Amino acid sequence: MRSLNYLGILSLLLVVPTTHTLKAHDFKTCSQSGFCRRGRALSARAKDAGLKWNSPYSVDPSSVAIASDQATFTAGVKSSLYPEINFGLELRVHDDGVVRVRMDEVGGLRKRYDEAASWALISEPVISKDIKWKAGKKDIRAVYGQKKENEVVVTFEPLRVALLRNGKEQVVLNGQGLLHMEHFRNKAPEVTHTEEPEPQEGEAAVSDEAQVVMKAENVRAWFEGESEDAYWEETFSSWTDSKPKGPESLSLDINFPNHGTIYGIPQHATRLALPTTAGESPFFSDPYRLYNADVFEYLASSPMSIYGSIPVLHAHSADSTVGIFHAVGSETWIDVAHASDKSTETHWVSESGILDLFLMPGPTPEDIFRQYSKLTGTSVLPAQWSLGYHQCRWNYVSSDDVRTVQKRFDEEDMPVDVFWLDIEYAEDHKYFIWDKKNFPDPVEMVNDVAALGRKMVVIVDPHLKRTSDYPVYQKASELGFLVQTNAGSEYEGWCWSGSSAWIDFFNPGAWNWWKSLFKITKQGSDWSWTESTEAVHIWNDMNEPSVFNGPEITMPKDNLHHGGWEHRDVHNINGMLYSNLTSQAVAERSKTPTRPFVLTRAFYAGSQRFGAMWTGDNLGTWEHMAVGVKIVLSVSIGGFSFAGSDVGGFFGNPEPDMLVRWYQVGAFAPFFRAHAHLDTKRREPFLLDQPYKGIVRDILRLRYSLLPVWYTAFRETSVTGLPVLRPHYVAFPKDQGGFNIDDQYFIASSGLLVKPVTEKDVTETTVYIPEDQVYYDYFNHHAYRGAAKGKQITVPAALHQLPLFVRGGSIVPTRERPRRSSTSMNLDPFTLRVALSKTSTARGELYLDDGVTYAHQQGQFVWREFVAEKAPKKSRAIRIYSKDLGAARPTEAVDGVALQTFNPSNSYAKSIAEVRVEKVVVVGLTDKPKSVKIEGGKELAWEFAPGIAATDKKEGVASILHIKDPKALVTQDWAIIIE
Question: Which DSSP string do the residues of 21-35 spell out, in sequence order?
Answer without folding.
Answer: ---GGGS--GGGSHH
